[in-house]
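Tutorial handout. Part one gives the primary structure; part two gives the three-dimensional structure as tokens.
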Amino acid sequence: MSISRVALFAAVVAAAGTLGISLLLGRGAAAPVRQAPLAPVAQAAPAAGAAPAAFVAADQTPPAPTINVMGEGRVTTQPDLARMTLGVEVFNRSLAQAEQDASQRMNAVVNQLASMGIAKDDIQTVSFSVNPEYDFPQNGAPTLRGFRVNNLVSVKIHDVNRVGDIADAVINVGATTVQGLSFEVSNPQAAADQARTQAMQDARHKAEQLAAAAGVALGKPMSISESVSVPPTPVPLERGVAAPAAAPATAPPIQPGTTEIRITVNVAYSIQ
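Part two.
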């Protein structure tokens, strides 16, 4: 085929292709132009355990330096309140008789307390029990021996110097148990305030020493917490019915002693 024929054939093919495309597009609405989806822009994944970028600055901010110390204050004061547990214990073969005897004895105890200036509101029942008791023979079934009745009251005594006299007086009228004696401070607020001031002064003194040794200036307290301890003073005391004596028994010497109020504070000071 000559060069002229080849050129002519190529021109015809090109024209036919253009015409076919035009005809296809002309049969309806313009065909939508489809675009290939764009490839997502690759982003570097954060390292494992790394914080998001928005929080990096906040997380990397170091906490403000502080000096943390504990201060202590102790104040010793005289107790002005005593608590004592006393009561009766009665055994009888008859339950009704045991309860009656216990009631009579306890009424006598309460009346004696009232005659010595103990207010009704300062007497509170803390225990009352009725227990059957049995005999257990080696051969045979257990047999009921009787009933034991216990009745205990807690008494507040505002004159601590009369504890011994009160204990003897209630035993003389029928009490069989005197126990659980302790001394307290009825209003510890003033002593606690004094102890708290001492604790803060102690904490400040320690913090100033630490700051001077470290070569920094001590700032203001950033946080303060405290712990208060006002324990009662227990006194071992347990008395029962004494055997009859020719002469009246002497009241036991009871010494209230002192009560310590302790306050500790934990203070965090800023460093300037």
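Part three, for discussion. The longest strand covers residues 143-157. The domain at 81-184 is CATH 3.30.70.2970 (Alpha-Beta Plaits).
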